[in-house]
User: What shape does this take?
Amino acid sequence: MLLGTQRINSQGHLEVGGCDTVELAQRFGTPLYVMDEAWLRGMCRAYRAAFEQRFRESLVVFAGKAFLALAMCRIADEEGLGLDVSSAGELHTGLRAHFPPPRIVMHGNNKSVAEMDMALGAGVGRIVVDSEVEIEALQRAAAERRAVADVLVRVTPGIEAHTHEYIQTGKIDTKFGLGIGTGQALPAIERVLASPNLRLHGLHCHIGSQLFDLRPFDIATRMMVDFMCDMREATGYVARELDLGGGLGARYRATDHPPSVESYAETISRALREQCERHALPQPKLMAEPGRSIVGEAGLTLYTVGVIKDIPGVRTYAAVDGGMSDNPRPALYGAEYELVVANKAAMPINSRVTISGKHCETDTLITDVQVPELAVGDIVAVQTTGAYNHSMSSNYNRLPRPGVVLVHDGQAEVIVERETLDDLLRQDRVPPRLEGKQGS
Assistant: This one.
């Protein structure tokens, strides 16, 4: 499975963005995250065009949790997207990248007072309130600043979308938002409307991630408009904005067939128009928050094969120089990936191996994958690692986090430096009482 600008070059190597991945591994070392800029920009443009052509007023907001770095913020800004952040760290990244605050949407189910104050001070465009506790806290924070916070209220429509249970976020039993069916959403709306330092703009919902079925999006959109109608009848307030979150899936395997961006936008836009007409509601501004589907297939991770261990009659393991510290998703919820042996991309596939990491756990990246015969030193490229791999990476076993390289038109530029061993110790401190006791 080749993605984006990937191809097999004349040397039989995997190439992406005009760069030979074997040469990238030699130049920058492994493990290494590689991001295809042409794919990133192409997806940003596809999303904007799909929604702008189908709906009167819309805004595509990049979900920064999928992959966030200063350079990614600049790309999203240049392509006219908004930026969804959910922590002080993500907000700080956007601000340091000079991302326009009016196009920043601040999320989070447990925002600290400091994070709320930071968002207010930065002048972010929208703060999405997630609970009654947060409504009260944001009102106090805004009042202390003598400011008005522009908010959306996150509600849960009660839809169990077909995806892994860990990434279902719109069902009733979830930590996110305020339930429509449980009767919590409407009182929260009334509380926001009664808060002098909060200005309500509309509603937000998000039903899940890595979705291939468009029906839940259609149902969720219609349910949200139904609730907008109930809200108008109960309070007189007419929502001017509706943020339907993200969730469209990416291809991790050749057998994956996620819907197109265009069909996704068409499903949501049609449902919103029809339901607004049915309830005689003015069409709100439509917002969507894609993340994985923009950056997922843009990324791959390069590893070097180290130990190859055959267990007769069982399986062959090929251990690489990374693993769950740079990609925890297989260990967390059984995520599946495909790979290309970068230096043998044109060679016949004649063996089966299990790709394992080097960590002190089972740490399996891909089980029983068909590959050309592997040798120590081969370069393995795991596909579709642009979303959640870098952002969820860790220093387990004190491994430095990999660097990130952006490739485009034959150029490779570092956008996140590889951590060094000294970086691992930068925050360590030794109490004075332990000084001078080495070797005791």
